[in-house]
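Design a sequence for this backbone.
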């Protein structure tokens, strides 16, 4: 029995009929349109294609990504990244057969996404959120800034905050609002043990509603819901879904020139007072007075805001956001692409040169300058093949022709895939000299349209990558994640997949030399740029096309569409963790990290670099010079570190470019990140 992509079994008879019909159809087409090829070769290609298609159909689940804590699956719609359904129903998140590689992002945990879709995203001053809440310690420098200064609410508003008071911080603890001479909010009067709320109305002083708490310990022992509404007739205060105070009022709320904040009161000069020590899980602001039933329902289930009419702002301080939520690029701090575990083999059409098979993606026999298809099959992490990684096309692929890349083995763990940085790494201060410079004090970012992080030595780049695993990191990663500087074998795993039917080679929008990944020629090292063509001698060093421009821009990705990996040809040359004989050179290391984190090569002749033989799956001898990508020098005693991709002005940069280097802080060098999920069982 065989399975189609819907999971239904089809009979052997039906499958045989399908194969026969396909063979007849393709033979007719082949005889009419592809006279350049022999019928027997064409039949073999069809058989291989049908076999591989059958394998792919039956193993579709093997491309399923493993998400780290707080990673959000995304798809691209209406010129924006939006949250995808991780169940991948109808291939909405990924479909490798259509070169749609799985993408995911992490959000900057010093910011908070506005789920109302009104772009009222917030910033968290001197704190971060984690596991569904943000902790504001009641110090002068900590608060949540919701923006919305000078917003004119007129005579209707709802302010809703779900919070736990950690301790009483003086006589007044301002929970939520913008009280400074206007506006309003919700507070706790510790001296009188009262919750109070109110607004400054035109021509009047503040109008308050108050509720005395008989047992103030309830405020510190649990999360409570505080809500104030105003409808132009009454101001009402609710506590845990019940109305506890009300007063009549009329007139418009005076707009406040300061932002709405949680955790204190901000003056017009930006100073903070009346701070509160809070854990906050949810904030809502409406431009209307919600009903008592809504208050009760949302207090019982804050995630189920059913009536979003005039909802201005919604924060929930975790990454469990609804599917199809638009994610502003400003909220994203890292973007990743999933490389599923696979085995590969490189075919030879002439029995001598292994440039891949011609298949259906080239109009001529593969050559050094225009290589053909790398055969790929997706596998589970329980499968590890150690064959030759090559075969004669006319003989077909044999069982011992498959090899599982070393990139999918992390120490003593077998991985179902790896997450790789979608763009060259940038820093949390891309406006700094060289986009960051030779320091570990900045945080790594992976985003388009920013200056890449350069002039950093390998040791510091490695330390920055490992810092992403630290407790309290701004990415929300937990202990089951290992982020590290990309190894050479991991770079190679991307390059083989790109040169397969699942990558740019298989993308029907490109043909001939344009199957090569386009070059980033930006002399400003702007991530995600494209020159609109493969590497060449042009001296137009502008960011001619951005990553999201169809074809000319997306041609610089490893898929030819927006779902691939960028900056792998040109921009800055990228250091990878590939080293000759454990030599440190100018890398900045005192001692090298363990072999889990770098590929060690023992001979400067790439035909003997691994145990006196070629390094299968490392993108060295196997693919050396493909597309005329340059190899200026190999690794040596003097230059023991590998650099990939080439610089924007190299002339022959590309996915298969590599050279030896000292590993020092160099103005034209950057690095890339990899993430391994190490214990999701």
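Sequence:
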């Amino acid at each position: 029995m065989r399975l189609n992509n819907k999971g239904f079994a089809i009979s052997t008879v039906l499958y045989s009929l399908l194969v026969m019909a396909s063979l007849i159809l393709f033979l007719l087409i082949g005889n009419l349109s592809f006279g350049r090829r022999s019928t027997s070769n064409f039949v073999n290609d069809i058989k291989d294609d049908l076999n591989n298609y059958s394998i792919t159909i039956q193993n579709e689940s093997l491309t399923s990504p493993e998400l780290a804590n707080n990673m959000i699956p995304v798809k691209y719609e209406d010129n924006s990244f939006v949250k995808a359904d991780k169940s991948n129903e109808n291939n909405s998140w990924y479909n490798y057969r259509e070169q749609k590689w799985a993408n995911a992002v992490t959000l900057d945990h010093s910011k908070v996404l506005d789920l109302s879709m009104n772009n009222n995203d917030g910033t968290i001053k001197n704190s971060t959120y984690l596991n569904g809440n943000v902790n504001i310690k009641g110090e002068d420098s900590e608060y949540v800034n919701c923006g919305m200064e000078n917003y004119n609410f007129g005579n209707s508003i709802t302010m809703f905050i779900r919070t736990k008071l950690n301790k009483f911080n003086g006589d007044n603890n301002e929970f939520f609002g913008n009280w400074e001479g206007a506006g309003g909010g919700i507070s706790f009067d510790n001296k009188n043990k009262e919750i109070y709320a109110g607004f400054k109305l035109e021509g009047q002083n503040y109008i308050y509603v108050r509720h005395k708490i008989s047992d103030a310990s309830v405020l510190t022992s649990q999360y409570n819901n505080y809500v104030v509404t105003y409808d132009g007739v009454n101001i009402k205060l609710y506590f845990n879904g019940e109305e506890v105070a009300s007063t009549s009022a009329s007139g418009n709320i005076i707009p406040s020139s300061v932002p709405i904040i949680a955790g204190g009161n901000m003056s017009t000069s930006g100073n903070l007072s009346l701070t509160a020590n809070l854990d906050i899980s949810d904030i809502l602001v409406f431009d209307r007075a919600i009903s008592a039933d809504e208050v009760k329902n949302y207090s019982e289930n804050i995630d189920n805001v059913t009536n979003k009419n005039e909802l201005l702002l919604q924060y929930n301080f975790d990454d469990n956001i609804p599917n199809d939520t638009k994610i502003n690029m400003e909220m994203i701090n890292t973007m990743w692409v999933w490389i599923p575990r696979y085995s590969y083999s490189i075919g030879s059409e002439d029995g001598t040169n292994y440039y891949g098979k011609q298949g259906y993606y080239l109009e001529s026999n593969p050559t050094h300058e225009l290589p053909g298809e790398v055969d790929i099959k997706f596998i589970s992490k329980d499968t590890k093949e150690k064959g030759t990684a090559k075969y004669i096309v006319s003989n077909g692929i044999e069982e011992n022709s498959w090899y599982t890349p070393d990139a999918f083995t992390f120490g003593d763990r077998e991985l179902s895939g790896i997450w790789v940085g979608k763009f060259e790494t940038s820093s949390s201060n891309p406006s700094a000299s060289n986009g960051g410079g030779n320091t570990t004090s900045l945080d790594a970012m992976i985003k388009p349209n920013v200056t890449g992080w350069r002039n950093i030595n390998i040791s510091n780049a490695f330390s920055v990558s490992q810092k992403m695993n630290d407790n309290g990191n701004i990415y929300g990663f937990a202990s089951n994640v290992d982020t590290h500087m990309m190894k050479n074998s991991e770079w190679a795993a991307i390059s083989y997949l790109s040169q397969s039917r699942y990558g740019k080679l298989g993308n029907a929008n490109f043909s001939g030399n344009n199957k090569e990944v386009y070059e980033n020629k930006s002399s400003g090292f702007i991530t995600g740029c494209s020159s609109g063509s493969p590497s060449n001698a042009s001296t137009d060093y502008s960011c001619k096309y951005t990553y999201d421009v169809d074809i000319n821009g997306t041609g610089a990705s490893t898929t030819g569409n927006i779902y691939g990996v960028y900056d792998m040809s040109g921009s800055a040359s990228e250091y990878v963790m590939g080293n000759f004989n454990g030599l440190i050179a100018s890398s900045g290391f005192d001692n090298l990290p363990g072999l889990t984190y770098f590929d060690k090569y023992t001979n400067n002749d790439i035909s003997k670099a691994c145990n006196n033989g070629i390094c299968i799956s490392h993108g060295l001898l196997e693919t050396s010079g493909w597309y005329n990508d340059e190899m200026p020098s190999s690794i040596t005693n003097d230059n023991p570190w590998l650099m990939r991709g080439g610089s924007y002005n190299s002339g022959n940069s590309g996915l298969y470019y590599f050279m030896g280097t000292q590993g020092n802080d160099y103005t034209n060098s950057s690095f890339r990140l990899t993430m391994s999920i190490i214990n999701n069982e």
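Residues 265 and 422 are 41 Å apart (CA to CA).
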